[in-house]
């Protein structure tokens, strides 16, 4: 109805969808982090098989509690804040859909804020996932994410939770813009293109999110590698490694190509993760009765125009 107030997406919905997706793709996520802290180039499949053979198949889900904790903070914030900002902009501009410029602004600001909010849990996740790629003496052996938070605060101080904050915020801004803006634009195009004849369903969500995952992987790779190396680096004699020092050492040893280290596992993790996340999100939106304000498919437009005529 024209006067009916549209139901807004719950703040928690994005985090729930991201947690569901992360559970499915955690082995690939773990492999990505391990490859980023390993200074020798390796094949993703060989790396995954190596650790599975050495530590067992269940070990591929080591650090899953860290992933859940991160999604509950970071992903809940980035999608929840994006929807809040988008709602405010629409209300102030009197429109029902964001322009491309506002899409970038809302998703970018939400991503930056989420990167700040989620950095402590990002430190926990990286350390728990990268442990298996280190020697026994270098491992943290936290056990679970809550234990990790406690030990980091007690043994290294609260300031450790800000480690890698700058590249993480940069990555979060890029990630949110590239995922949300790309997905929204691709979905609009696929729905409105008369030559494709696609309906608003899971296949369309799959295509749009696959493109979003590919764009996000490429855009985020440099910041992702630097973030992981800074956060997984140990504190030596009370001295914490700086971003500039890690960049200089990595560049000297591996060349500028180190910034794309782990792109393949990152794509193999992020592309399926993005697909699952947006598919889960679309289904959760329908479950709670949220309006997405997407354009009507071409078939529906033609039928509506025929009825009016």
Automatic annotation (TrEMBL):
PANTHER family: MITOCHONDRIAL DICARBOXYLATE CARRIER-RELATED (PTHR45618)
Assigned GO CC terms: membrane
Stated name of the protein: Mitochondrial carrier
Alphabetical list of InterPro entries matching this protein: MCP_dom_sf (IPR023395), MCP_transmembrane (IPR018108), Mito_Metabolite_Transporter (IPR050391)
Localization of this protein: Membrane
Membrane topology term: Multi-pass membrane protein
Protein family: Belongs to the mitochondrial carrier (TC 2.A.29) family.
Species annotation: Aureobasidium pullulans (Black yeast)
């Amino acid at each position: 109805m024209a006067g009916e107030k549209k139901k807004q997406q719950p703040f928690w919905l994005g985090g729930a969808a991201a947690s569901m997706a992360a559970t499915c793709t955690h082995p690939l996520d773990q492999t990505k982090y391990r490859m980023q802290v390993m200074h020798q180039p390796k094949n993703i499949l060989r790396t995954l098989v190596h650790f599975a053979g050495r530590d067992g198949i269940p070990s591929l889900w080591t650090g899953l509690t860290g992933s859940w904790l991160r999604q509950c903070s970071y992903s809940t914030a980035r999608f929840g804040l994006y929807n809040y900002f988008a709602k405010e902009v629409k209300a102030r501009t009197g429109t029902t859909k964001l322009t491309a410029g506002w899409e970038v602004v809302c998703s970018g600001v939400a991503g930056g804020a989420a990167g700040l909010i989620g950095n402590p849990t990002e430190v926990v996740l990286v350390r728990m996932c990268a442990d298996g790629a280190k020697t026994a003496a270098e491992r943290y052996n936290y056990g679970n994410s809550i234990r990790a938070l406690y030990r980091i605060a007690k043994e290294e101080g609260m300031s450790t939770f800000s480690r890698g904050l700058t590249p993480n915020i940069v990555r979060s801004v890029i990630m949110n813009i590239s995922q949300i803006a790309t997905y929204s634009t691709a979905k609009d195009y696929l729905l409105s293109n008369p030559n494709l004849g696609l309906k608003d369903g899971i296949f369309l969500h799959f295509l749009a999110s696959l493109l979003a995952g590919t764009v996000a992987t490429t855009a985020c790779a440099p910041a992702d590698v630097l973030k992981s190396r800074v956060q997984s680096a140990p504190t030596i004699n009370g001295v914490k490694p700086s971003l500039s020092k890690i960049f200089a050492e990595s560049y000297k040893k591996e060349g500028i190509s180190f910034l794309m280290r782990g792109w393949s596992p990152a794509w193999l993790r992020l592309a399926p993760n993005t697909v699952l996340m947006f598919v889960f999100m679309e289904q959760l939106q329908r479950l709670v009765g949220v309006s997405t304000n997407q354009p009507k498919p071409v078939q529906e437009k033609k039928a509506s125009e025929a009825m009016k005529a």
